[in-house]
Write a structure and sequence with these properties.
Blueprint: H1 2-65, E1 71-74, E2 77-87, E3 90-98, E4 105-112, E5 116-123
Antiparallel strand pairs: 1-2, 2-3, 3-4, 4-5
């Protein structure tokens, strides 16, 4: 009888230990997943901020110099700029982020007269 009680105790300890390892593993994986999700959201927000800064800088360059540089450098990163077309005062340009952050781009259509008016802002 004592031998069976000892065996039951060992099996119970093994089962409880396995459950604790399983629960710990699930909690660790959930935590990692949440961390990756948060990092992804942060990168997306930073990327959008970079793209907004690049668009603002592009508009300043177009207004001051009547030209669009191929690379726009801001304090938070860089973007490539492509002039798709320019007919009279109508400009069509594309801006894309450069670097580690996930790819993001926009297409701007604007009218550069005495002031710059954005006709269209389309995310890519």
């Amino acid at each position: 009888m004592k031998n069976n009680q000892g065996m039951a105790a060992i099996i119970t300890v093994i089962i409880l230990g396995a459950l604790m390892v399983l629960i710990g593993s699930v909690m660790t994986l959930t935590s990692i997943s949440e961390g990756q999700s948060t990092l992804s959201e942060t990168k997306a927000k930073n990327n959008q901020s970079l793209l907004d800064a690049c668009a603002e800088e592009a508009l300043i360059k177009i207004n001051k110099n009547n030209a669009l540089p191929t690379t726009i450098i801001t304090s938070i990163g860089s973007c490539t700029a492509t002039l798709n077309s320019q007919v009279g005062t109508n400009w069509n340009l594309t801006l894309n982020t450069i670097g580690e952050m996930s790819y993001l781009g926009i297409n701007l259509i604007l009218d550069r007269d005495s002031i710059i008016s954005i006709s269209s802002w389309t995310d890519q």
